[in-house]
Amino acid sequence: MENNQPLEHVHLLIIGSGPAGYTAAIYAARANLKPVLYQGIQPGGQLTITTEVENYPGYPEGIQGPEMMVDFEKQANRMGADIRYGMASSVDFSSQPYKVTIDEDKVITADAVIIATGASAKWLNLPSEQRLNGSGVSACAVCDGFFFRNKEVAIVGAGDTAAEEALYLSKLCTTVHMFVRRHEMRASMVMQDRVLKTSNIIVYWNTETDEVLGDKKVHGVRIRNIQTQETKEIPVEAFFVAIGHQPNSGIFADYLELDEQGYIVTVPGSSKTKVEGVFACGDVQDKIYRQAVTAAGSGCMAALDAERYLSAKGLH
Ligand code: NDP
Fold first, then answer.
1. Is 90 exceeded by the pLDDT of residue 2?
2. Dist. CA 242 → ligand 1 center (Å)
3. Cα angle at 184 between 172 and 123, to 5 degrees?
């Protein structure tokens, strides 16, 4: 969109405010790169929709996800990062300095850009699923499965993530009810095999979820067999949605290499993208690990890569 806003030039622009973005900001600020970070529409990222985080090192008693992200922000702030509310709406990486438009209005130019826009879990979009999100409905078994140990739980999905999460849950929970919408799974054969051989995972084929049941917390789920239209209620205390993630990479598609699922492709072992001086970290480029601690680690890598790049260009 054309506009008449004056340009602001920044040395290093960071887009995104999950563990990757804030960690990049902490490292970049300490290296005197004067980073400006735009938080996006969900400041703090996906962790702000989880409850307790028990697997992030350094919090021996665990911590609430939203609180942890406030800590990340405070730390980046204390180091001198300029943290702003706003959403990158388009980019122009065709020539340097790179241009990033915020909220379809303000244009920023930057010597280097770190992309940390994360990914968003896909949901079924049932009203009951949204209402009980965080009260038994979760899109992350590794984050929340532990709270339902020795309970019955359900999971929807049939890809590698769903298979991996069902297996993870089967080690903690008494029974895992797994709902597959077709007559077969999409997951790799080896993962399917493991799921089908696990005695406490019950697979329901050709099955859709009608409703997650519960008032303040999940106490069951109503499913429907697509072929027979028969419905059934199953008592469970948690409902895990594992139908894939969508990396938030759309605005970069014209400039960066994306894989077939939309994840930004980086040079292995680094945060470098196809465009010199543009780096990517966290879930927007990681479909395998997707943990807060791995995202933070890759944010650190991006800041170090950016620092080296700016030094080599004589810009720092
Ligand atoms: P996928 O896109 O591979 O699978 C999504 C699954 O969810 C599909 O089975 C799909 O069903 C199902 N689904 C989608 N929408 C709905 C819906 N509305 N209702 C019910 N079911 C639905 O996503 P994943 O996250 O599983 O995997 C993403 C990529 O990451 C894959 O390439 C995977 O191989 C990879 N991965 C690799 C791992 C590893 O190597 N260890 C671990 C995890 C992921 P349908 O099949 O009918 O379309």
1. no
2. 7
3. 60
